[in-house]
Design brief:
The protein is mainly β and about 210 residues long. The chain has three helices and twelve strands, in the order E-E-E-E-E-E-E-H-E-H-E-H-E-E-E. Pathway: Amino-acid degradation; L-tryptophan degradation via kynurenine pathway; L-kynurenine from L-tryptophan: step 2/2.
């Protein structure tokens, strides 16, 4: 099976969380202008596009990116499609998830929101009750298809704390438009940013036979 890139392309017009620094992708040197080489400057927060949350994002004593075990983000993963228009709820979390599972939720965000340049407050999020069930199941990773695993108006802090406090790492901003539910192999590598509460990442999956 071929690898599929499920990362958000980094562009200057990409959607960011309200109040975050806009993403800047600017070519400051150009061969066409007579410069000796091409050079692109990037400006963005650690939580732009497809990115990984470290526990330090919401926990004062949480570890930062350089201490994160990379095997949390590599290995078998299950994609679960949720049709609830508001949130992933506890009933959407399978009762038979094995300890150490990597879980990715595909919602209407993939169809309607993630590719828009404007932020959408009504995106589908993981509810606190679902996060607590995932923590009780001792999964190792949760991935979502918008900029936050918690909601804009509901369960922002509660969901993050429930997951990150249980040692569950979070990938946000995944592009799942053409991904069907099922079993996959996942590779997601964040940048090594010492002391950071998060990092942009490249995420790939391929279907398992």
């Amino acid at each position: 099976m071929s690898w599929i890139d499920i990362s958000t392309p980094i562009r200057s017009d990409m959607v960011v969380w309200p109040g975050d620094t806009p993403v800047r992708v600017e070519q400051t040197m150009s061969l066409d202008r007579g410069d000796p080489f091409n050079l692109t400057v990037l400006g963005m927060t650690a939580h732009s596009g497809t990115h990984v949350d470290a526990p330090r994002h919401f926990l004062a004593d949480g570890v930062s990116m350089e201490h994160m075990p990379l095997d949390q983000l590599m290995g078998p993963a299950v994609v679960i499609e949720v049709d609830d228009p508001q949130a992933v709820r506890a009933r959407h979390v399978p009762d038979d998830l094995p300890p150490g599972a990597r879980v990715i939720f595909k919602t209407r965000n993939s169809r309607e929101y993630l590719t828009q340049t404007g932020f959408v407050e009504e995106f589908v999020y993981v509810s606190e009750e679902a996060a607590l069930k995932l923590a009780a199941a001792r999964v190792r990773m949760v991935g979502v298809d918008y900029l936050s695993v918690g909601g804009f108006q509901n369960d922002l802090r509660e969901t993050h704390v429930a997951l990150l406090g249980a040692g569950i790492y979070v990938i946000e901003g995944l592009v799942l438009t053409h991904i069907e539910p099922g079993s996959y192999e996942l590779v997601c590598l964040p940048l090594l940013i010492p002391g950071s509460d998060g990092s942009p990442a490249r995420a790939l999956i391929r279907r398992l036979p």
